[in-house]
Every structure is written in C-alpha cells, then in structure tokens.
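Researcher: We're teaching a course module on how sequence relates to structure. For the next exercise, students receive a sequence and then see the predicted structure as tokens, so they can try to spot secondary structure elements on their own. Here is the exercise chain.
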Amino acid sequence: MSSASTLITNIGELSTQDYSADAPVLKNAAMVFEGERISWIGPAGNAPAADEVVDAGGRAGLPGWVDSHTHLVFAGDRSAEFEARMAGQAYEAGGIAVTTEATRAASDYDLTRMLLARAAEAAAGGTTYLETKTGYGLSVEEERRHARIASTVADAVTFLGAHLVPDGADADEYTDLVCTDMLAAVRPYVQWADVFCEKGAFTEEQSRRVLQAARDAGLGLRVHGNQLGPGAGVQLAVEFAAASVDHVNHLSDDDVAALADSWSGRDSGAGVPGTVATCLPACDLSTRAPLAPARQLLDAGVQVALASNCNPGTSFTSSMAFCVATAVLQMGLTVQEAVRAATYGGALALRAHTGADRDGARAVGSLAVGHRADLQLLNAPSAAHLAYRPGMPLTGMVFRAGVQVPVRR
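Model: And here is the predicted structure for the students to work with:
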C-alpha cells in the first residue's frame, strides 16, 4: 500500500541546502511528501497532484534544524550560577557537579517527562533532528539510566561519561571506569562517545584513552575541545577522525590547519567526511567567551556546524534560530552559510547527511528527493529574516518525517 502524499505549495523561497542541485535556493517552489520521505521538489506551477495540499502562503522554507550538541537529560536549576557569571564570576567546568547531584536524585518518570518537554520545545522552534548526551550521571548505573532514557526520545545519543571527574574520585581510576564498565553499560543505547578534553576535566592522555576505548567498542567519536583555552582537543579529534570537535573557541593556526586538512580532497557530497567544527554561540555568549572563529574556519575549508548546546549551566536554550542570528550578526557568516551550518552542518557532524533507503535511514539536513521530509516554514518571505528580525518567533509550520509538529506560542 502506498503512503499518503502531501503537497506543500506556494513556498516563496525554498533553501534546500542541496548543493548538488542546479539551484539550491528556489523561488515559488513546492514539495511533495510521501510518508516520511520527500518524493518531489520543483516549481509550484509544475507540482503533481497529492492526497493533501498545504498552502505555505509565500512563506520561506528550509530544512528542519539539526541540533548536533545538547545535554537535555538533567534536573535542577543553575540560574544562580548564571547570575553570578553575569556579575563577573568566571566559568569553570566544575559547575557540572551541581547538575549531577540533582539529576541523580530525579526519578525515571521525571527525567523522561522533562526530556520530552525539552524535545517538544526544540521541535516547536524548527528542530527536527536532535542529538543529546549523557554526562550528568557519572556512575555506571546513572549513565546507563540516562542513556536508556535519552534513547527513547533523541534521534542520536552520545555517551559523555567523561564529562567531569566526580568529587573525591581519582581521575585515572575514573577514566578507567569510563573506558570499561561504564562504556559497556551504555553501549546498547548510544551511537557516539564524547570526552571533555579541557583543563579541569580530562587531560590529553585521559581523553586519548576514552576515545580509543570508544572506537574499539564501535562508537562514533566526538570531542569537547578548546573551549576554555588552547588545548589538545582539536588535534585529538582529527587524529581519531572524530566526526566533530565542539566549542572550538581557542584555536591556533595549527588547529585550523589540522581541521582543514581533514577535509582536504573531499567535498560536501563525496568521500569520507572530515572533522566538523561545531560552534556553540549561545554558550559563548552565556559564558562571555570569545565567539568561535566560524568565518576563519569556513574560509580555511572546514565544514562548520551550529548547535544549541542546550544545558542548564551555560546555554539553557534550544533556539537554533538564535544561534543562526548570532552567527550572522556577530560571527561573520552570511545567512545561507549560517542556515547551512545549522542544518546540513549538523547532519554532517552526526553523519546523518546521507542514507536514503540505507538500513531504513533517511538523510536529514537538506531537502532532496529521498531525504527525510523535515521542513520548516517561516512566517517571513526569506531566510534572511532570521537575522534581519532577531529574536522574533518566526517559526510558522514544522514537519518532521512528513508529520506536522505543533508550534506553540
């Protein structure tokens, strides 16, 4: 039995982010969904018949946001820490321990309820593909519990047992635990592993052990790197062919060159992807850190992603539109570059940019025939309004895998 089809017509501007197409930005466009997949894209005047018709009313259309870096499994409140930071207190990695205590005390029911609410809030803002991490458990049982809960909601789950060394624990002994019993406990629920390679968290040697163990376990790799100062995170990420290195606030010329070299000889549509540099501008603003050098990275040939880093300590927002506006207004990106980083870039960072009909998976982050039908329509005639009207609630309609998502006001 064929799936029901839906025609989205009268799209004023459609930013497909499909750069294999002749025109990645179409005017007066239309799109047809069949079930969860896109079956047709083209001029509205040439659109085929469908079972249902949705009039976009001249709105701009673009792929749903792909948020490739969040920490959504948590309980508790750290607004006092935020207020102190705004009054001049420096950010340090140790604040994670506050959330760990509250999260451990929360029931499965409460953690699941809060995760579902946060995911729904993100979807209402246009996010249709969502990664989230463990990392507020920091014990074998708690990390397993958080990974299991996350796997029921998120599209991709990352093991971040190496988020912080718990108070009173020996750092090397805890690293061994992360690499053995903890990794084995979470393995059924996760696709990725991450490590916070930073002063106050995990050293280069400890981070290397975590990445090696995760790779041996068959997980994809990610790295929190170069957030608080210069460090080994970027170089380790490239050495281990990690899918992404995230934060990247403090980069040397050698770091930029290493990331660029990981993409040498490849383009966005062919070959094995290099290491994506994921910028987290909402976090940078909240911690009063220098904004990640996205312009320099793009100019060097590095693929860049934008993500929300939604978490209770340094970036309690899932607004990818805010990240896009910040990237345009303060980081030197064009509107299309910022939109691409928040859609296709995030998909690259999660290796979800390809896969139509592969193992039942469908590509996200760009709009093309065969890709998952993830579309957002703005209450605006063009994507430029995301930065032209920063902070305004422009999300008009959202479709995830061909199903319309409620948009709350």
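Model: If you want an answer key for the exercise: The radius of gyration is 21 Å. The chain has 14 helices and 16 strands.
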